[in-house]
Amino acid sequence: MKPLHILINPHAAGGRAARLAPALQAWAQARATPATVHVAETVPQALQWLDALPHGCTVALVGGDGTINQLLPAFLRNKLTMALVPQGSGNDVARALGVAGLPWRDALALAEQATPCAMDVGWLRTPQQERPFLSSLTVGFDSAVGYKALHGPRWLRGLPRYLLATFRELSALQTWDMQVELDGVQVHSGTTLFASTLNTPTYGSGMPAVPHARTDDGQLNVLIAGRFNVPQTLLMLPRLLMARHLSHPRVQTRPFRTMAIASAQALPLATDGEYVGESPTLSVQVAPGALQVLRR
């Protein structure tokens, strides 16, 4: 078996990931094949550790979508293969890779035995920043909800946390005037609730936003919701949870390779559930097969 490196984000899942460290250390020490376990208290510490690894090796991340998003640049520049021990609040990347809910021993066995495969990566670019994402880029209402979810009650996890954040955001519902171009063609202009990009079928801790999305087809999918008021948004929520929202006349989804969005207002943005600020303009591009992953 090839050497395996395990990186733990002790803050993932409200600190629950840290409690796995002793068991993972014991597991690594009992192996015949070398394995290293590292607990990274900060993102810079984790990035430094990843940058010191040999290019092309396999790293099992113990964390969730936020952990993946923060460490994804190091995986890309060092051509590391990503395995997951799902320990996050959202786990939408884990769902796409078929490992959500997998016990940690089974997840590590998969990391040792599975054959790497390619996964597409999205890139967000604004005048202020350039960053990759693996599951989703939210623009508008979805980002505002994600921001409230990040600052929600620590005891509430997963989908219930996102639903609570959604209801809180509805109390001051905001829309934006957006122009959206896909591959150089304008597909939407006007009042918009959100215009978000999916690489995985779900976001927001399992909401099936684009059920047909694939992570290895060389393209991303935009999900656009036009003009919605508070009652209409409330009525749309159960349709979204049941994956019946795409038939709504003010909702559309389309595949793309490049996207540009412009607005007179600053647009709230979040990548993989992590709030990353605001910008009135942005572009998105897919990097086909840019990351090697292990899936079930």
Low-pLDDT ranges: none
The CATH class of the largest domain is Mainly Beta
Based on the structure given, which CATH architecture of the largest domain is correct?
Sandwich
Provide the CATH topology of the largest domain.
Answer: Tumour Suppressor Smad4
Q: Please, how many domains?
A: 2
Q: What is the structural class?
A: alpha+beta
Question: What portion of residues belong to β-strands?
Answer: 35-45%
- Radius of gyration over all CA atoms, rounded: 19 Å
Q: Report the end-to-end length measured between terminal Cα atoms.
A: 18 Å
What pattern of helices and strands is seen along the backbone? EHEHEHEHHEEEHHEEEEHEEE
What does the average pLDDT come to? 91
Fraction in helix:
25-40%
Helices, by number, come to 8
The biggest sheet, with number of strands, parallel, antiparallel or mixed sense and barrel status, is: 14 strands, mixed
Task: List its salient traits.
globular; Rossmann fold; 14-stranded mixed β-sheet; 296 residues; 35% strand; 27% helix; Tumour Suppressor Smad4; alpha+beta; 8 helices
Describe it.
The chain is an alpha+beta fold and 296 residues long. It folds into two domains: 4-114, Probable inorganic polyphosphate/atp-NAD kinase, domain 1 (Rossmann fold, 3-Layer(aba) Sandwich), CATH 3.40.50; 122-289, Tumour Suppressor Smad4. The chain has helices at 21-29, 43-51, 65-77, 92-96, 104-113, 141-150, 158-170, 230-241, and strands at residues 4-8, 35-39, 58-63, 81-86, 117-125, 130-133, 136-139, 176-182, 185-192, 194-198, 220-225, 251-256, 258-271, 274-293. The longest helix is centred in the first third of the chain and has 13 residues, at 65-77. Strands 1, 2, 3, 4, 5, 6, 7, 8, 9, 10, 11, 12, 13 and 14 form a 14-stranded mixed sheet that branches. Helix 2 runs parallel beside helix 3 and helix 6 (141-150) packs across helix 7 (158-170). The radius of gyration is 19 Å and the shape is globular.
